[in-house]
Specification:
Helix content: 55-70%
Number of strands: 2
Distance between the termini: 24 Å
Strand order of the largest sheet: 1-2
Number of domains: 2
Shape: globular
Order of helices and strands: HHHHHHHHHHHHHHHEEH
Strand content: under 5%
Low-confidence stretches: 81-87
Number of helices: 16
């Protein structure tokens, strides 16, 4: 055990004390802080946000719609889409859901339109009747009428966590793709494997420190992003329901619960990223190709759209960490059946993120042992 500890320290030293690691981490820290602070936001943004916060606690019911209608009539504002919705204030985020708000518009109309569009989305995803029934139960747990809480600041944090996930992927691709390949390039791999602790212990030490290094970097970037966003905007709106930002979502959760879910995805995804980087480094034996392979795969998922009709393939792509962590997932109602029980992708994905590195570790060990003989 003592020898394993020494080897772990040596492997960590090799990862950290490389020029590409130090440069990559420095750049990622700067990008994280810039993304969190969002220095391009002007004072008018904060003034509008403060005005929206005065509407906290307002219910989206017929009484509120009536008050808005009376105020619009009193102000002699034309009943066109832009002016009406802007005057409605807290309803403005819903303009993409409701095409117009004329004099006959009621809160009941809004909930009916929302329900119709959700069902239409489910049909586009080719959901089964059992899946639709499952979501119907989730809808029943969402409190109606919706109670408004200004969420614009916390939505910035939620969106920025997507950037943290991408930086975590780049960190693994840049820093861990050389864990095995550098020794092959330097010609020291054969010497290490013939030493007393160069087989099982050396292999285990590399994976342990690779996992811990990537986890530490992900936690660092995530906490920096959270701290920068908090200092710039604060955490107001964490208790807002996600339907204010994503009206067609049937998830019964607040932005705070979504934020916690994103952290779970980030932490478990760090093991997936590091495991994949080290496995490619071992198999390909070329750090540049291993890094390029991870980045190329990510780019392919961004440029090539898989039709929803290819359900399993498109759903697997949606379960990739860089996709799943986005708010768009809240609009995806596709479920996964395990032993007759339905689960969301938020539940299944973290398990996969932890299981896949274990498989890669065992497969990589077979390759490592075969090369030792």
């Amino acid at each position: 055990m003592k020898q394993l500890g020494i080897q772990c320290y040596f492997e960590l030293y090799k990862i950290v004390h490389t020029k590409q690691t130090r440069i990559a981490l420095a750049v990622m820290v700067v990008l994280t802080l810039l993304s969190g602070l969002q220095l391009n936001k002007q004072e008018t943004y904060f003034e509008q946000s403060r005005q929206m916060e005065t509407m906290d606690g307002t219910k989206l019911d017929n009484a509120t719609i009536t008050e808005i209608r009376q105020a619009i009539d009193l102000a002699n504002i034309d009943w066109d889409k832009e002016e009406t919705w802007s005057y409605a204030g807290f309803l403005y985020p819903l303009t993409g859901l409701v095409p117009s708000m004329d004099k006959a518009f009621t809160a009941d109309d809004f909930y009916q339109i929302r329900s119709t569009q959700i069902k239409q989305t489910m049909k586009e995803y080719a959901l089964s009747q059992k899946e639709m029934d499952w979501w119907e139960k989730q809808e029943e747990s969402i409190e109606k009428p919706f109670i408004y809480t200004s969420f614009f600041h916390v939505q910035s944090l939620i969106n920025n966590m997507t950037n943290v996930c991408l930086l975590s992927l780049l960190c693994a691709a840049i820093c861990l793709s050389v864990v095995f390949s550098n020794e092959h390039r330097n010609g020291t791999d054969a010497l290490i494997r013939t030493s007393k602790y160069g087989k099982k212990e050396a292999y285990l030490a590399k994976w342990i420190m690779g996992f811990l290094f990537e986890l530490a970097c992900t936690l660092l970037l995530g906490m920096l992003m959270t701290a920068a966003t908090f200092l710039r905007f604060g955490f107001h709106g964490m208790d807002a329901i996600v339907q204010w930002g994503i009206p067609l979502s049937s998830y019964s959760m607040t932005f705070l619960q979504l934020f916690k879910t994103q952290w779970i995805l980030l932490i478990t995804a760090s093991f997936l990223f590091s495991g994949l980087a080290m496995f490619l480094s071992l198999v390909i034996r070329n750090g540049i190709l291993a890094m390029a392979g991870m980045i190329a795969f990510y780019l392919c998922t961004q440029f090539f759209i898989i039709p929803y009709q290819w359900r399993w393939l498109s759903q697997i792509v949606q379960m990739l960490p860089t996709e799943l962590i986005t708010t768009w997932t809240l609009n995806d109602h596709r479920l996964i059946s395990v032993f007759g029980q339905y689960h969301t992708m938020y539940t299944i994905a973290p398990v996969c993120y932890l299981l896949i590195p274990v498989i890669l570790f065992m497969a990589g060990y077979s390759v490592y042992q075969r090369e030792t003989r």
